[in-house]
């Protein structure tokens, strides 16, 4: 079982918003989608879900296009956080719609989760706070029992406790390898420890498809202090400087080889310390160029 | 009637709209009937319905209307509201990813809304006739005949369907509710001007049609127009992309055709209504300028300031 996004492109007002996006996604995977504001994350989701008509490409589920066989879309769940129809309905009414589309929608679980999170089933969706709406969206997603669940900024507005509960639930959901999640987030810390893979969007294109385990095995984040004020050539060539404070440098080297290690040690740094590598470090290291993210020049 | 999951989904979504419309139709039409009946006391006749109801022609007079005019407004309004509501409330997002093809969704929506509207017409008409029968003044008969009734119903339903298709299509291609209502009102009112043109054409020139023939020619033309709009709507619905939601036209490719139709239509109305040359010319210029500003929204003020800064 796989979902394949194949060369998906979308232009709005003749401007390419996403271009030639291709990736594969299997149940059991939690994929993070990152990229700066306006890079096309939500447009990618909307195009995948047929809200926007694609200018090119397609979405295939088990090798069959969702346009050729629309019923396959029922294997995907996506609730647009900005534009959805839930506003005028009370929470107890929502399953009426979702169970007509998602054959395995678990109404009992939906009601149970509402109760667990102390959400009043008689509340109108539009009267809920931002965080509570995000929570209802998440409960709908989990109750849908769809194979591929797309979540757009799902933790936006949630408090820390709820966020942690939800993250745990997501991890539990994928344990039986029957569901997969594709999660976009601006807060890369949210995806840390949750995603197996990260897709990086930049300039409307899919710049990288990271397997985080591989990346972490190759990359290193170092805190260094050298005697001189000049940044050594080896760092200029192979690293991204995350922070520079006086002579203290924090750098990320995405492809850390024994040769680089030898060169650095040969410079006899005053301080040479490895720091835990976060997703945010990787994001900064890869998006530093041309995005205004540079911290020093 | 609700045979599929999709039908049930559409019904669940719109059942409040249908119920509201049904209650409104009953209240308005039955109260209008009571008002007509109360006026019958002052009429010197023994029959509410004339003998002409036995002929195969549309029956309508001050005492009895076989097919109530209110239904035309109901079809027009519901056609527009039904399509517009799904766009405005973002239900289209849900429908487009619900696992049903756009084609299935479009025809299911059309089938359900027409079935409900015809159902309302049947029930309300039945109630109206019943009211006549029960509440007719003493000594006044109420006798109906199939030829007049069937002809009136067929004519009325065709007219209603024609207006429905205009509302339906307008809501399908327009992304702004307020301006959609204004456009729809403007176009519907202008149809009265079109009626005069039709009248002139069908009575004079190569055609010498009597009143009944003229009415049927108009209604058949409207029916063909309605069928074209509904089929065209199916084609467009399949290509609807929601990034244009909130714009005047949901299909940027329609700007030029709408512009041309608007200019030709309004200028044509002026020309065929025997306006003088100056009036036609002014109408043409005004529609050309207004249509351009309306559809393309050029930032004239901004351009003017930029031009002045360069001076």
TrEMBL record, chain A:
Claim: Nucleotide-binding is one of the keywords in the record: yes
Superkingdom of the organism of origin: Bacteria
GO molecular function, one term: ATP binding
Keyword Nucleotide-binding in record: yes
PROSITE patterns: ABC_TRANSPORTER_1 (PS00211), ABC_TRANSPORTER_2 (PS50893)
Keyword vocabulary terms for this entry: ATP-binding, Nucleotide-binding, Transport
SMART domains, alphabetized: AAA (SM00382)
Residue span(s) of domain ABC transporter: 3-228
Protein name: ATP-binding cassette domain-containing protein
UniProtKB/TrEMBL annotation, chain B:
Keywords: Membrane, Transmembrane, Transmembrane helix
Residue stretches spanning the membrane: 21-43, 63-83, 112-133, 153-173, 180-198, 218-237, 249-271, 277-296
Keyword Coiled coil carried by entry: no
The keyword Transmembrane helix is assigned to this record: yes
Protein name: ABC transporter permease
Source organism (scientific name): Levilactobacillus tongjiangensis
């Amino acid at each position: 079982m796989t979902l394949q996004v194949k060369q998906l492109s979308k232009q709005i007002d003749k401007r390419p918003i996403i271009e030639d996006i291709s990736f594969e996604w299997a149940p059991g995977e939690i994929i993070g989608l990152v990229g700066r504001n306006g890079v096309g994350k939500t447009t990618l989701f909307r195009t995948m879900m047929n809200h926007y008509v694609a200018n090119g490409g397609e979405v295939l589920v088990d090798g069959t296009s969702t346009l050729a066989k629309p019923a396959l879309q029922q294997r995907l769940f996506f609730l647009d956080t900005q534009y959805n129809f839930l506003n005028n309905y009370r929470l107890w009414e929502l399953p009426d719609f979702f169970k007509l589309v998602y054959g395995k929608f678990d109404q009992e679980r939906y009601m149970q989760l509402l109760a667990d999170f102390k959400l009043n089933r008689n509340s109108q969706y539009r009267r809920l706070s931002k965080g509570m709406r995000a929570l209802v969206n998440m409960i709908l997603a989990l109750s849908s029992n769809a194979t591929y669940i797309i979540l757009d900024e799902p933790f936006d507005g949630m408090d820390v406790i709820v966020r942690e509960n939800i993250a745990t639930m997501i991890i539990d959901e994928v344990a039986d390898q029957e569901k997969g999640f594709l999660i976009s987030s601006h807060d890369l810390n949210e995806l840390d420890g949750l995603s197996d893979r990260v897709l990086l969007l930049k300039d409307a294109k899919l710049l990288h498809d990271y397997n985080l385990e591989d990346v972490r095995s190759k990359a290193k984040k170092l805190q260094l202090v050298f005697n001189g004020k000049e940044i050594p050539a080896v760092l200029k060539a192979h690293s991204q400087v995350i922070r520079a404070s006086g002579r203290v440098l924090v750098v990320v080297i995405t492809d850390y080889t024994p040769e680089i290690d030898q060169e650095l040690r040969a410079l006899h740094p005053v301080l040479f310390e490895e720091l835990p590598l976060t997703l945010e470090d990787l994001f900064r290291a890869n998006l530093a160029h041309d995005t205004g993210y540079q911290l020093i020049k | 009637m609700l045979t599929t999951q999709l039908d049930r989904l559409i019904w669940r979504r719109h059942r409040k709209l249908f119920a509201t419309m049904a209650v409104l139709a009953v209240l308005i039409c039955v109260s209008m009937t009571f008002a007509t009946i109360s006026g019958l006391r002052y009429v010197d006749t023994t029959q509410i319905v004339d003998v002409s109801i036995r002929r195969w022609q549309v029956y309508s007079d001050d005492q009895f209307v076989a097919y109530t005019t209110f239904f035309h407004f109901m079809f027009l309004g519901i056609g527009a509201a039904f399509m517009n509501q799904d766009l405005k409330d973002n239900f289209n997002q849900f429908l487009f990813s619900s696992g049903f093809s756009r084609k299935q969704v479009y025809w299911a929506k059309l089938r359900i809304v027409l079935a409900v509207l015809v159902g309302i017409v049947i029930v309300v008409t039945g109630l109206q006739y019943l009211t006549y029968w029960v509440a007719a003044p003493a000594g006044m008969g109420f006798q109906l005949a199939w030829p007049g009734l069937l002809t009136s119903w067929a004519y009325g339903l065709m007219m209603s369907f024609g207006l429905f298709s205009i509302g339906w299509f307008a809501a399908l291609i327009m992304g702004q509710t307020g301006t959609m209502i204004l456009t729809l009102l403007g176009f519907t009112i202008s149809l009265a001007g079109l009626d005069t043109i039709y009248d002139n054409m069908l009575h004079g020139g190569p055609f010498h049609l009597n009143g009944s023939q003229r009415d049927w020619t108009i209604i058949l033309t409207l029916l063909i127009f309605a069928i074209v709009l509904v089929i065209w709507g199916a084609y467009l619905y399949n290509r609807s992309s929601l990034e244009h939601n909130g714009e005047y036209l949901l299909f940027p490719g329609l700007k030029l055709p709408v512009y041309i139709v608007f200019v030709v239509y309004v200028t044509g109305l002026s020309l065929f209504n025997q306006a003088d040359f100056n009036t036609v010319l002014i109408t043409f210029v005004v529609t050309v300028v207004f249509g351009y500003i309306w559809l393309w929204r050029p930032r004239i003020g901004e351009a003017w300031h930029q031009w002045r800064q360069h001076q």
